[in-house]
Amino acid sequence: MNPELVATLVKYAVMFAVFINVAPIMVWVERRGAGLIQDRPGPNRVGPFGLFQPLADALKFMFKEDVTPTLVDKPLYLLAPVLALMPAFTTLVLIPFGPEITVAGWSGPLVVTNADTGVLLFLAISSLGVYSLVMAGYASNNKFSLLGAIRASAQLISYELALTISVLAVLIPVNSFRLTDVVAYQQAHHIWNCIPQILGCLVFLIAAFAETNRLPFDLPEAESELIAGFHTEYGAMRFALFFQGEYSNMAALSALGATLFFGGWSLPFIHYPNNLLGGVLGLLTLVAKIAIAMAVFVWVRWTFPRFRYDQLMRLGWKFLLPLSIVNLILVAAMTLAGWL
Protein backbone atom coordinates (compact mmCIF):
# COMPACT_ATOMS: atom_id res chain seq x y z
CA MET A 1 0.00 0.00 0.00
CA ASN A 2 1.11 3.56 -0.71
CA PRO A 3 3.01 4.84 2.40
CA GLU A 4 1.59 8.34 1.87
CA LEU A 5 -1.97 6.99 1.91
CA VAL A 6 -1.28 4.97 5.06
CA ALA A 7 0.22 8.04 6.78
CA THR A 8 -2.79 10.16 5.80
CA LEU A 9 -5.24 7.56 7.14
CA VAL A 10 -3.31 7.22 10.40
CA LYS A 11 -3.14 11.01 10.88
CA TYR A 12 -6.87 11.39 10.26
CA ALA A 13 -7.63 8.50 12.63
CA VAL A 14 -5.62 10.24 15.38
CA MET A 15 -7.43 13.55 14.92
CA PHE A 16 -10.82 11.83 14.62
CA ALA A 17 -10.20 9.91 17.86
CA VAL A 18 -9.46 13.20 19.63
CA PHE A 19 -12.50 15.07 18.27
CA ILE A 20 -15.06 12.24 18.62
CA ASN A 21 -14.42 12.09 22.37
CA VAL A 22 -14.91 15.82 22.89
CA ALA A 23 -18.70 15.66 23.40
CA PRO A 24 -18.84 12.89 26.08
CA ILE A 25 -15.94 14.42 28.00
CA MET A 26 -17.37 17.92 27.80
CA VAL A 27 -20.81 16.76 28.98
CA TRP A 28 -19.19 15.68 32.23
CA VAL A 29 -16.94 18.76 32.46
CA GLU A 30 -19.88 21.08 31.73
CA ARG A 31 -22.06 19.56 34.45
CA ARG A 32 -19.32 19.30 37.05
CA GLY A 33 -18.16 22.81 36.18
CA ALA A 34 -21.70 24.12 36.55
CA GLY A 35 -21.97 22.39 39.92
CA LEU A 36 -18.67 23.89 41.08
CA ILE A 37 -19.57 27.41 39.96
CA GLN A 38 -23.10 27.21 41.40
CA ASP A 39 -21.95 25.59 44.69
CA ARG A 40 -23.70 22.23 44.18
CA PRO A 41 -22.41 18.68 43.58
CA GLY A 42 -23.28 18.11 39.92
CA PRO A 43 -23.45 14.50 38.66
CA ASN A 44 -22.10 12.20 41.38
CA ARG A 45 -24.21 9.02 41.26
CA VAL A 46 -23.30 7.18 38.03
CA GLY A 47 -19.75 6.02 38.68
CA PRO A 48 -17.09 7.78 40.78
CA PHE A 49 -17.57 11.56 40.57
CA GLY A 50 -20.31 10.90 37.98
CA LEU A 51 -17.70 9.87 35.38
CA PHE A 52 -20.06 7.34 33.76
CA GLN A 53 -22.84 9.90 33.30
CA PRO A 54 -21.91 10.55 29.62
CA LEU A 55 -22.18 6.79 28.97
CA ALA A 56 -25.63 6.77 30.57
CA ASP A 57 -26.65 9.73 28.40
CA ALA A 58 -25.40 7.98 25.26
CA LEU A 59 -27.38 4.84 26.10
CA LYS A 60 -30.47 6.95 26.72
CA PHE A 61 -30.15 8.58 23.30
CA MET A 62 -29.66 5.20 21.61
CA PHE A 63 -32.70 3.54 23.17
CA LYS A 64 -35.03 6.54 23.18
CA GLU A 65 -37.96 6.40 20.75
CA ASP A 66 -37.14 8.27 17.55
CA VAL A 67 -40.26 10.25 16.65
CA THR A 68 -40.64 12.08 13.34
CA PRO A 69 -43.44 14.70 13.32
CA THR A 70 -45.99 14.16 10.56
CA LEU A 71 -45.80 17.54 8.79
CA VAL A 72 -42.03 17.98 8.53
CA ASP A 73 -40.11 18.26 5.25
CA LYS A 74 -38.66 14.77 5.72
CA PRO A 75 -35.56 14.82 3.45
CA LEU A 76 -34.30 18.11 4.91
CA TYR A 77 -35.39 17.10 8.42
CA LEU A 78 -33.27 13.93 8.26
CA LEU A 79 -30.30 15.60 6.54
CA ALA A 80 -29.89 18.53 8.97
CA PRO A 81 -28.40 16.59 11.95
CA VAL A 82 -25.86 14.85 9.70
CA LEU A 83 -24.86 18.17 8.13
CA ALA A 84 -24.29 19.61 11.63
CA LEU A 85 -21.36 17.21 12.15
CA MET A 86 -19.70 17.44 8.75
CA PRO A 87 -17.98 20.88 8.98
CA ALA A 88 -16.24 20.10 12.29
CA PHE A 89 -15.02 16.67 11.23
CA THR A 90 -13.86 18.04 7.86
CA THR A 91 -11.94 21.06 9.15
CA LEU A 92 -9.86 18.92 11.52
CA VAL A 93 -7.85 17.68 8.51
CA LEU A 94 -6.33 21.18 8.22
CA ILE A 95 -5.08 21.49 11.84
CA PRO A 96 -1.34 20.69 12.30
CA PHE A 97 -0.83 18.66 15.47
CA GLY A 98 2.89 18.02 15.54
CA PRO A 99 6.29 18.70 13.94
CA GLU A 100 7.57 17.14 10.74
CA ILE A 101 8.61 13.63 11.73
CA THR A 102 10.31 10.60 10.19
CA VAL A 103 8.84 7.18 11.02
CA ALA A 104 9.59 3.86 9.25
CA GLY A 105 11.01 5.60 6.21
CA TRP A 106 8.11 8.05 5.88
CA SER A 107 8.74 11.74 6.46
CA GLY A 108 6.23 14.58 6.57
CA PRO A 109 4.36 17.13 8.72
CA LEU A 110 1.72 15.96 11.19
CA VAL A 111 -1.25 17.48 9.41
CA VAL A 112 -3.70 15.47 7.32
CA THR A 113 -3.92 18.05 4.53
CA ASN A 114 -1.25 20.75 4.37
CA ALA A 115 -3.23 22.82 1.85
CA ASP A 116 -1.83 26.03 0.34
CA THR A 117 -5.16 27.70 1.18
CA GLY A 118 -5.46 26.07 4.62
CA VAL A 119 -6.95 28.97 6.58
CA LEU A 120 -9.35 30.00 3.84
CA LEU A 121 -10.47 26.39 3.40
CA PHE A 122 -11.06 26.08 7.15
CA LEU A 123 -13.22 29.22 7.21
CA ALA A 124 -15.12 28.19 4.08
CA ILE A 125 -15.96 24.71 5.40
CA SER A 126 -16.82 25.84 8.92
CA SER A 127 -19.24 28.45 7.56
CA LEU A 128 -21.33 25.64 6.02
CA GLY A 129 -22.56 24.74 9.51
CA VAL A 130 -25.25 27.42 9.30
CA TYR A 131 -27.02 25.37 6.61
CA SER A 132 -27.79 22.60 9.09
CA LEU A 133 -29.39 25.07 11.51
CA VAL A 134 -31.47 26.77 8.82
CA MET A 135 -32.44 23.40 7.36
CA ALA A 136 -33.50 22.04 10.76
CA GLY A 137 -35.58 25.12 11.59
CA TYR A 138 -37.29 25.27 8.21
CA ALA A 139 -37.94 21.52 7.87
CA SER A 140 -39.44 21.15 11.36
CA ASN A 141 -42.64 23.05 10.42
CA ASN A 142 -42.54 24.78 13.80
CA LYS A 143 -42.63 28.57 14.14
CA PHE A 144 -40.24 28.56 17.11
CA SER A 145 -37.77 26.36 15.24
CA LEU A 146 -37.97 28.67 12.22
CA LEU A 147 -37.35 31.74 14.40
CA GLY A 148 -34.32 30.00 15.90
CA ALA A 149 -33.01 29.19 12.43
CA ILE A 150 -33.42 32.81 11.28
CA ARG A 151 -31.64 34.04 14.39
CA ALA A 152 -28.83 31.54 13.85
CA SER A 153 -28.27 32.55 10.22
CA ALA A 154 -28.21 36.28 11.05
CA GLN A 155 -25.92 35.74 14.04
CA LEU A 156 -23.40 33.49 12.32
CA ILE A 157 -23.13 35.68 9.22
CA SER A 158 -22.70 38.80 11.38
CA TYR A 159 -19.90 37.41 13.55
CA GLU A 160 -18.12 35.55 10.75
CA LEU A 161 -17.02 38.92 9.36
CA ALA A 162 -15.19 39.97 12.52
CA LEU A 163 -13.75 36.48 13.04
CA THR A 164 -12.46 36.25 9.45
CA ILE A 165 -10.83 39.70 9.56
CA SER A 166 -9.10 38.85 12.87
CA VAL A 167 -7.76 35.67 11.24
CA LEU A 168 -6.53 37.55 8.15
CA ALA A 169 -4.56 39.90 10.38
CA VAL A 170 -2.57 36.92 11.67
CA LEU A 171 -1.67 35.91 8.11
CA ILE A 172 -0.21 39.29 7.07
CA PRO A 173 3.20 38.93 8.81
CA VAL A 174 3.29 35.18 8.06
CA ASN A 175 2.68 35.81 4.33
CA SER A 176 1.09 32.39 3.90
CA PHE A 177 -2.29 30.69 4.20
CA ARG A 178 -0.80 27.44 5.50
CA LEU A 179 -1.49 26.75 9.17
CA THR A 180 1.86 24.94 9.41
CA ASP A 181 3.56 28.21 8.38
CA VAL A 182 1.64 30.11 11.09
CA VAL A 183 3.02 27.71 13.72
CA ALA A 184 6.52 27.92 12.20
CA TYR A 185 6.38 31.74 12.30
CA GLN A 186 5.59 31.71 16.03
CA GLN A 187 8.34 29.15 16.63
CA ALA A 188 10.90 31.26 14.75
CA HIS A 189 10.04 34.43 16.70
CA HIS A 190 9.70 32.63 20.07
CA ILE A 191 6.47 34.51 20.80
CA TRP A 192 2.81 33.67 20.39
CA ASN A 193 0.67 35.90 18.16
CA CYS A 194 -1.69 36.60 21.06
CA ILE A 195 0.88 39.02 22.51
CA PRO A 196 1.52 41.42 19.58
CA GLN A 197 -2.04 40.89 18.30
CA ILE A 198 -3.94 40.92 21.60
CA LEU A 199 -6.79 42.95 20.06
CA GLY A 200 -7.29 40.43 17.25
CA CYS A 201 -7.13 37.58 19.75
CA LEU A 202 -9.94 39.11 21.84
CA VAL A 203 -12.08 39.68 18.72
CA PHE A 204 -11.53 36.07 17.68
CA LEU A 205 -12.43 34.82 21.16
CA ILE A 206 -15.73 36.74 21.34
CA ALA A 207 -16.68 35.86 17.76
CA ALA A 208 -15.94 32.19 18.47
CA PHE A 209 -18.58 32.19 21.23
CA ALA A 210 -21.12 33.61 18.80
CA GLU A 211 -20.12 31.20 16.02
CA THR A 212 -20.70 28.18 18.28
CA ASN A 213 -24.03 29.48 19.69
CA ARG A 214 -22.70 29.36 23.23
CA LEU A 215 -23.86 31.52 26.10
CA PRO A 216 -24.09 34.48 26.23
CA PHE A 217 -24.75 34.17 22.46
CA ASP A 218 -27.19 31.21 22.48
CA LEU A 219 -30.12 33.22 21.09
CA PRO A 220 -30.96 30.56 18.43
CA GLU A 221 -31.69 28.08 21.26
CA ALA A 222 -33.04 30.44 23.96
CA GLU A 223 -35.34 28.13 25.94
CA SER A 224 -37.15 31.02 27.62
CA GLU A 225 -38.21 32.38 24.22
CA LEU A 226 -38.01 29.58 21.62
CA ILE A 227 -38.43 26.34 23.63
CA ALA A 228 -35.19 24.90 22.22
CA GLY A 229 -34.89 26.82 18.96
CA PHE A 230 -33.96 25.11 15.73
CA HIS A 231 -33.81 21.59 17.27
CA THR A 232 -37.11 21.72 19.16
CA GLU A 233 -38.61 18.89 17.06
CA TYR A 234 -35.57 16.61 17.32
CA GLY A 235 -35.05 13.80 19.81
CA ALA A 236 -33.04 10.62 20.41
CA MET A 237 -29.93 10.21 18.23
CA ARG A 238 -30.86 13.07 15.90
CA PHE A 239 -30.68 15.51 18.79
CA ALA A 240 -27.45 13.80 19.89
CA LEU A 241 -25.93 14.62 16.48
CA PHE A 242 -26.66 18.32 17.00
CA PHE A 243 -25.17 17.99 20.47
CA GLN A 244 -22.03 16.33 19.10
CA GLY A 245 -21.84 18.93 16.34
CA GLU A 246 -21.90 21.83 18.80
CA TYR A 247 -19.06 20.48 20.91
CA SER A 248 -17.06 19.42 17.84
CA ASN A 249 -17.38 22.95 16.43
CA MET A 250 -16.19 24.34 19.76
CA ALA A 251 -13.15 22.03 19.60
CA ALA A 252 -12.45 22.92 15.96
CA LEU A 253 -12.53 26.68 16.63
CA SER A 254 -10.46 26.15 19.79
CA ALA A 255 -7.88 24.26 17.71
CA LEU A 256 -7.85 27.06 15.12
CA GLY A 257 -7.49 29.72 17.82
CA ALA A 258 -4.67 27.76 19.50
CA THR A 259 -2.89 27.41 16.15
CA LEU A 260 -3.27 31.06 15.13
CA PHE A 261 -2.65 32.83 18.44
CA PHE A 262 -1.06 30.36 20.91
CA GLY A 263 1.59 28.52 18.93
CA GLY A 264 -0.48 25.47 17.98
CA TRP A 265 1.32 22.25 18.92
CA SER A 266 4.55 24.09 19.83
CA LEU A 267 5.88 25.82 22.95
CA PRO A 268 8.32 28.79 22.98
CA PHE A 269 12.02 27.84 23.29
CA ILE A 270 11.20 24.10 23.30
CA HIS A 271 12.25 21.92 20.37
CA TYR A 272 10.41 18.62 19.87
CA PRO A 273 12.38 15.76 18.28
CA ASN A 274 11.48 14.82 14.70
CA ASN A 275 10.34 11.32 15.64
CA LEU A 276 7.29 9.58 17.05
CA LEU A 277 7.94 11.00 20.55
CA GLY A 278 7.94 14.54 19.12
CA GLY A 279 4.63 13.82 17.38
CA VAL A 280 3.05 12.57 20.60
CA LEU A 281 4.34 15.59 22.56
CA GLY A 282 3.01 17.95 19.88
CA LEU A 283 -0.41 16.30 19.93
CA LEU A 284 -0.56 16.44 23.74
CA THR A 285 0.41 20.13 23.69
CA LEU A 286 -2.35 20.96 21.21
CA VAL A 287 -4.91 18.89 23.14
CA ALA A 288 -3.94 20.69 26.36
CA LYS A 289 -4.49 24.09 24.70
CA ILE A 290 -7.86 22.95 23.30
CA ALA A 291 -8.84 21.70 26.77
CA ILE A 292 -8.04 25.10 28.31
CA ALA A 293 -10.11 26.85 25.63
CA MET A 294 -13.04 24.47 26.23
CA ALA A 295 -12.81 25.17 29.97
CA VAL A 296 -13.13 28.88 29.17
CA PHE A 297 -16.31 28.11 27.18
CA VAL A 298 -17.76 26.41 30.27
CA TRP A 299 -16.66 29.17 32.64
CA VAL A 300 -18.21 31.90 30.48
CA ARG A 301 -21.47 29.96 30.11
CA TRP A 302 -22.10 29.94 33.85
CA THR A 303 -20.79 33.46 34.47
CA PHE A 304 -22.49 35.82 32.00
CA PRO A 305 -26.21 36.25 31.30
CA ARG A 306 -27.69 35.91 27.82
CA PHE A 307 -27.77 39.03 25.63
CA ARG A 308 -30.92 40.45 24.13
CA TYR A 309 -30.98 40.00 20.38
CA ASP A 310 -30.57 43.71 19.65
CA GLN A 311 -27.54 43.79 21.97
CA LEU A 312 -26.04 40.83 20.17
CA MET A 313 -26.40 42.46 16.75
CA ARG A 314 -25.11 45.80 18.03
CA LEU A 315 -22.01 44.15 19.51
CA GLY A 316 -21.26 42.34 16.26
CA TRP A 317 -21.73 45.22 13.82
CA LYS A 318 -20.89 48.34 15.86
CA PHE A 319 -18.02 47.07 18.03
CA LEU A 320 -16.42 43.81 16.92
CA LEU A 321 -16.38 44.54 13.18
CA PRO A 322 -14.77 48.03 13.55
CA LEU A 323 -12.30 46.62 16.11
CA SER A 324 -11.28 43.82 13.74
CA ILE A 325 -10.73 46.34 10.91
CA VAL A 326 -8.65 48.59 13.20
CA ASN A 327 -6.62 45.52 14.23
CA LEU A 328 -6.05 44.60 10.58
CA ILE A 329 -4.77 48.11 9.77
CA LEU A 330 -2.50 48.13 12.84
CA VAL A 331 -1.00 44.75 12.00
CA ALA A 332 -0.42 45.79 8.38
CA ALA A 333 1.31 48.99 9.54
CA MET A 334 3.47 47.10 12.06
CA THR A 335 4.43 44.57 9.38
CA LEU A 336 5.46 47.33 6.95
CA ALA A 337 7.48 48.96 9.73
CA GLY A 338 9.28 45.66 10.37
CA TRP A 339 7.95 45.25 13.92
CA LEU A 340 6.31 41.90 13.14
Q: What does this 3D model show about the protein?
A:
The chain is mostly helical and about 350 residues long. It has one domain. Helices cover about 65% and strands about 0% of the residues. The chain is built from 13 helices and 2 strands; from the N terminus they run H-H-H-H-E-E-H-H-H-H-H-H-H-H-H. It has helices at about 5-20, 20-35, 55-65, 75-90, 120-125, 130-140, 145-175, 180-190, 200-210, 225, 235-260, 275-300, 310-335, and strands at about 100-105, 105-110. Strands 1-2 form a two-stranded antiparallel ribbon. Helix 4 runs parallel beside helix 11 (about 235-260) and helix 9 packs antiparallel against helix 13. The relative contact order is 0.15. The mean pLDDT is about 90.
Descriptive tags:
single chain, 340 residues, mainly alpha, two-stranded antiparallel sheet, 13 helices, 2 strands, globular
